[in-house]
Amino acid sequence: MRIGILGSGLMGGKLGTLFARGGHEVVFSYARREQKLKKLARDAKGKARSGTPREAAQDAEAVLLAVHWSRVDDVLNQAGDLSGKVVVTCSLPMKDDDTALVVAHTSSGAEEFAKMIPKAGVVAAFNTVPSEVLFDVYEAKRKASRPSLVYCGDDPKAKKVAARLIRDLGFEPMDAGPLRIARYTEPFGLLIAQLAYEGKGGPELAYRFERFGK
Ligand SMILES: NC(=O)c1ccc[n+]([C@@H]2O[C@H](COP(=O)([O-])OP(=O)(O)OC[C@H]3O[C@@H](n4cnc5c(N)ncnc54)[C@H](OP(=O)(O)O)[C@@H]3O)[C@@H](O)[C@H]2O)c1
């Protein structure tokens, strides 16, 4: 699959690298230094390259939004028309100083983002795990029990694509329903961040849901 990365920091850099390792064609974009994007593409080995946000989005079958909430307008302007694209967002709608959500309860970052690109198929995913665990999960993907990853969205085709990408990275996709469920998954992402960064065991933390009673 051709995947355009909008925001090549902790999340976009790692997710893009792992998508490339999994055989996908990846374009890294949107960092302050072009050299960083070039290095990411080089180090990812596979079929990865660097480009502008427009180049990343242009022929992409899936686009990953991985920028700070304050950069969403800017990156969207640079990316151009995303109509008809699958757009997976891991971005949490955080205040500039990252101390709190600026959208919650009655909406979510994912829903507000979807309003900005109404003709795209938006899926919220990867927003509930710290970047530090991504390589570990990928490396453990052949093990019998995988960590879960919740995702939600309103477009069934886009969700199918997102579920495939989630599985490719070594997680078990958990369909949480429509995009409005991001009102719950986004604060859940902050719970995981609290456990990862303030808890005792370090930030390499993922989660797994288990069903009982059958
Ligand atoms: N980090 C996590 O574990 C985690 C987990 C779940 C969700 N999230 C969410 O995922 C999103 C991305 O987080 P992140 O930790 O990956 O952020 P990050 O490391 O700061 O990456 C953001 C990217 O945007 C680029 N950028 C920022 N300002 C820019 C500008 N003015 N011009 C061009 N590029 C610019 C950064 O460039 P540089 O590379 O030059 O800095 C970087 O590549 C956020 O919304 C966050 O809430 C993060």
Describe, in plain words, how this protein is organized in 3D.
Helix 1 runs parallel beside helix 2. The model has no long low-confidence stretch (mean pLDDT 97). The radius of gyration is 16 Å and the shape is globular. The longest helix has 17 residues. Helix 5 links the parallel strand 5 and strand 6. It starts with a strand and ends in a 16-residue tail after the last helix. An eight-stranded mixed beta sheet has the order 3-2-1-4-5-6-7-8, sandwiched between helices. It is of the alpha/beta class and 214 residues long. It is built from eight helices and eight strands; from the N terminus they run E-H-E-H-E-H-E-H-E-H-E-H-E-H-E-H. 43% of the residues are buried.
Largest sheet: 8 strands, mixed
Number of strands: 8
Average of pLDDT: 97
* Poorly predicted sequence stretches spanning 5 or more consecutive residues: none
Oligomer: single chain
Question: What helical percentage do the residues reach?
Answer: 25-40%
Helical stretch tally: 8
Share of residues in strands = 15-25%
